[in-house]
Each structure stands twice: as C-alpha cells, then as structure tokens.
Amino acid sequence: MTGETGWELHNEAVERLTTSYAAIPDGAPVRLAKRTTNLFRARAATTVPGLDVSGLGGVIEVDPEAATADVQGMCTYEDLVDATLAHGMIPYVVPQLRTITLGGAVTGMGIEATSFRSGLPHESVLEMDILTGSGEIVTAAPSPDNEHRELFETFPNSYGSLGYATRLKIKLEKVPGYVALRHIRFDDPGLLAKTIAQITEARTYDGVQVDGIDGVAFEPGEYYLTLATWTDTAAGATPSDYGGQQIYYRSIQERAASGSGTDLLTIRDYLWRWDTDWFWCSGAFGAQNKYVRRLWPRRLRRSDVYMKLIGLDRRLGIADKLDARAGRPLRERVIQDIEVPVENLPAFLEWFDAEIGMRPVWLCPLVSQGIASTGSTTGRAKWPTYPLEPGRTYVNVGFWGTVHVGPDAVDAPKNRAIEARVHDLGGHKSLYSEAFYDKDVFNALYDGDNLAAVKARYDPGNRLTDLYSKAVKSL
Prior knowledge:
This protein is α+β, with helices and mostly antiparallel strands. The chain has helices at 3-23, 77-85, 102-107, 115-118, 149-154, 189-202, 248-258, 267-271, 290-295, 303-316, 318-326, 345-355, 413-424, 439-445, 448-458, 467-471; strands at 59-63, 68-72, 89-91, 125-131, 137-140, 164-174, 178-186, 204-205, 208-209, 212-219, 222-231, 262-266, 331-341, 361-367, 371-372, 380-381, 393-404, 428-429. Among the domains are: 3-175 and 464-471, Uridine Diphospho-n-acetylenolpyruvylglucosamine Reductase, domain 3 (2-Layer Sandwich), CATH 3.30.465; 178-274, Alpha-Beta Plaits.
C-alpha cells in the first residue's frame, strides 16, 4: 500500500469504519473487530459487531527524504518495520512484540530500548486522524494553531475512550544493518541505577555510543544492562539467531558468564529479540524445552500465538484445575509494567523481591520528551493522561506471571500492593492489564478532570466507554 493507490484504499477503509460505527446502536459497546490483542484485561461479552477495521492495517506511504511515514492505525509494528527497513529506517520506538499496532501503542503505551533517548511512541507522532465518539474524523496535531491540539495531547494512554486513530504520521530514524550488544552485570541495585542515569545523560558507556539500553533482573544481586550500538558492519562475525533453537534471555547470562558479554544481531532480529519467547514467558507452554522446541514450528514461536494459548487457558481454567488437582494454592495473575524514577529503582526492586518474589523482571529506562507548552518555544509540559516529568529518567519494570497466594487471589492483594508501592515511589503504571485504583486516586494519577473535559467535547453522546471503566472496571 503505497503512493496514490495507498491513499485511495485508505480512504475507502475509513469510510467502511465510519459506516460500521454509525450502525452500532446507542448504548451498545464500541470495540474494534481485530484478530489479535496485547491487553490483559477481561472484557464483558457482547453480541454487537465490532468496528470494521478491514483495510486499516497497512503503511500508506514512506517518505525517505522527510524521514516520515503515514501509517494506518491498525498496522502492526511487524508490518511497519518491514516497510520502513526497506528504506533503511525504523520508527523512533519499536515496542517489543510484533503484533502491537501503531494506533494501540499511541492510545495505549509502548516502550523499548530506544526510549531513554526517544521517549514513548506517541512522542514521535506528527499528526493523526482520529475517529471520535461523535463519529467524525478529525486531524489532531501538536501545533498551537491546531484546533484539536487538546485531543492530540490527551490521546496517549486513553485506550479508545477518546476515539481510535485511523492514520498517524510518524518520524523515522536511519539505521544500519546490525546491532552490537554488550551485556554488563551488576551485583548492587544502587550501582545499577547510577549507571542507568549516567548512560541516559551521556549516551555512551566506556567511550562507546549507546543507541539502545534495557536490562534484566534475574535474581537479587544479579542484574544486567544490555547496551546496543548500531553498526554498519558485522566485522566478520556471524549474527546470532534467537528465532530458532537459541533463547535470547538465556544468552544474556551465558555470554556474560563466558567473559565476553558481547553479541551481534541484525537490526531486524534485534527489534524482535524478545518476541520469539515472549521475553521468558514461553516457558509456561514448554517452548523452552529443547525437545518441544524442535517440534514447535518456528513460525508459531511468537507472542500472538502464546496470547491465544493464554486465552484458551482462561476460557477452560486449565492452570487452575491443574493446581487444584496438585493441591497448590490459587494463583494471582501479576502482569504489569510500571515506571519509577531511576533513583527509586533499588527501593522498588528490593521491595518487589521481598513482597512479590517474581523473577526475572525486565528493566527499560525512559525519558519522556514532554509536549511543547502553549505559547512557549522552550518549555515542555507533561502528557496529561500519563504525566511523567519531561526530561526525568524513569525505569520501566515489567513483570508477567502468576503468584500462588491462596483463596485471597480473587481480591488481587499482590497487584494492589504494587499499585500502592509504585505510587509511594513517585511512579506510574500502564493500563494494559488489570488495575484496582478507586476512582479518586485514578483521577488524580491520570488527570481525570482533563479526560472528562476532552471526552465531553469529542464524545458528547457518551458512546465510548470512559477510561476508568475500561481500565479498572474492565468493561
């Protein structure tokens, strides 16, 4: 889908979308009719057809000279990267999982190893077309003279409560063909946090440029930072392949233990290094067993397949039945991404080890770029619906699994404790999974007053479910 033909097809797809929206009865839930999801929130069942998003999953046009791309809202990052790499470019931030959509990463939250220098996916968006609750398509942009600027600013982290992006114009960066990795081990969380802060400021480590940084905390006292440097040459080395029998997260420990602590990947394989094994979560399905792995087709070792298996388990209650048969306590799902200021990372990790006890966990530094303050050429303001301090270094901590807690699991004690601790440490958490805040706290954290005002303007008939109901009540 490129050029004039791409725009024509896009316009036809938008017309189908708006027609399907108009056909949904007032009061009925509005949802996208999509085949994949990366949300971990339960949703109430409905017989109402979802919005017709057919034809909205592609790249309309890539402009190599301007280093921009016009992309449809339902385009997956897998397809987006295929289109941009053909021009030697990638989006500023490419979330870790192939089937995350660009529209989903912007109306939700996305993050990756370039976030310490490029912020979050919505911060490299130049403009976007949004289907609002009134059924109109509006073009929102950050420029002070754009009449829909407040919608542009409030849209990130709104999860469809303000509308759906049909087209986004994004900035691209040039990349070479390879990525050189260095895995650095730390025993002390304080030194780990100090090093993250130093790298984020200098964008170098031991005199070598750092283009991407993330890490893994395997155990208390065993922390790794992986530093990525873009490179034009393989220097005679054979790039590693973690889409086959080798497992990326295990390589971090193995290569560090071997003394070299280095690795080389193609740029494409680097972007999807976590997807093959859904970080480390594929082990729950046996995909990391070497005998099972040989029989598991490579094309089916990917996050969206595991997500479908999770859905099957939820419907049938397989894990709960096996636990009951074995006499194990009931599980609580603890699937969250949170951000805390880098200086508070040691306190969070130590608390998490003591109170939750789940490992490994993923670490990803980020610095929000903020938004230009109205009437100012230098000031930066918070994004209202996810108010991280612009220019301040945070660390995303991602943890995905279950904890045996017994009959109290239905009350989510571990998740509630995490919410309280993150709040105490001046952080925030993403809303792609379960949340348990009371409404007053939620409104304080995510600027509920601003959300309500923007929603009233763009959804006067209240056809779209509000964010609190989506994220906390899971409607």
